[in-house]
Amino acid sequence: MAAAKKGGLGRGLDALFADVPVKEPSPKQTKEPVKQKADENTVQYIKIHDIMPNVNQPRKTFDEEKIGELAASIKEHGIIQPIVVRSRDKGFEIVAGERRWRAAIKAELTQVPCLIRDFDDEQNMLIAIIENMQREDLNPIEEAEGLRQMTENYGMTQEQVSKSVGKSRPYITNSMRLLKLPEYIRESIADGRLTAGHGRALITVSDEKERKAIWEKVTEDSLSVRETEKLAAQGTKPKKRKTATRRKNPDVVRIEEELKEIFGTKVSINNAGSKGKIEIEYYTADELERLLELLQTLK
Predict the structure, then answer these.
(1) Is 131 part of the annotated catalytic residue set?
(2) Pick the residue with more confidence: 238 or 12?
(3) Rounded to whole angstroms, what are the CA distances from 17 to 12, 39, 113, 189, 266?
(4) pLDDT, average across residues 96-113
(5) pLDDT score for 19
């Protein structure tokens, strides 16, 4: 399995992302960088235009205002943390630190401090995803796409992905489910108009026309996730008023909320005395299959 060759990641990312101040280069350091070296922790200064972005970078959008702020800081204090690169046939490719590289260009630096690492394509992609997730730099759709790449492109199981990125198995499952949403909803989540919680509520609506109507109402009225979940459950069409029902015990409601977060769908607990039943709702065949896979991991 492709996921087996991860020796470079086993030692952790602390050394890779540690905030170690970098001094200005000495005359000796300004020579051409050595692509193959014994000590990969040696900082080398590389011409900024000899560096190219990571083609596997999961982050697709960069906040230009924040990059401008970082550029101003770099002009004042320099780059505090080296950029991690790997050598290519022509120049170097960024493994981690593209935002710093972009800011350095804006700050008109001619060279930047780098650590040259010998990563293969799989390690390169994994480091890029893990770094962004640890820094919370990805929007939910970019994150889901990165997780999908880990499972589909490199044959990793969701359990392996969970351990690699430090997230629970249900978190991985629910994140990747967002990619099943139509493009217009994914764009709303990517640009921050909606959250991942809104997306998980909307994915439970099986009728596409109804789902779009709910999405329009949610975005226009800035509804909360809880309001969206309620609307997704009852639909936009007016319903007949039901007779008043007995209020549930607050502890039962709390447990329902916890289970809903785990399973990513509505969960109801109906109890009578010491007995009762737990109902987990699904709305499509794919949804049922996902729930069955999730339940099998609890064995």
Answers:
(1) no
(2) 238
(3) 10, 17, 14, 28, 39
(4) 89
(5) 44
Measure the CA–CA gap between 244 and 136, rounded to whole angstroms.
44
Residue 9 is assigned to a structural domain of this protein: no
The catalytic residue among 98, 122, 142, 143 is 98
Tokens of 225: 């996730």
Residue 96, φ and ψ in degrees, nearest 5: -150, 130
Q: What is the CATH number of the domain that holds 57?
A: 3.90.1530.30
Tell whether 91 and 148 lie within a shared domain. no
Structural domain that includes position 186 = 181-234
Dist. CA 200–CA 260, nearest whole Å: 10
Residue 12: the pLDDT is 38
Is the pLDDT assigned to residue 98 strictly greater than 80? Answer: yes
**28 within domain boundaries:** no
Residues 6+ apart with CB under 8 A from 281: 204, 265, 266, 267, 268
Share of the chain above pLDDT 70, in %: 78
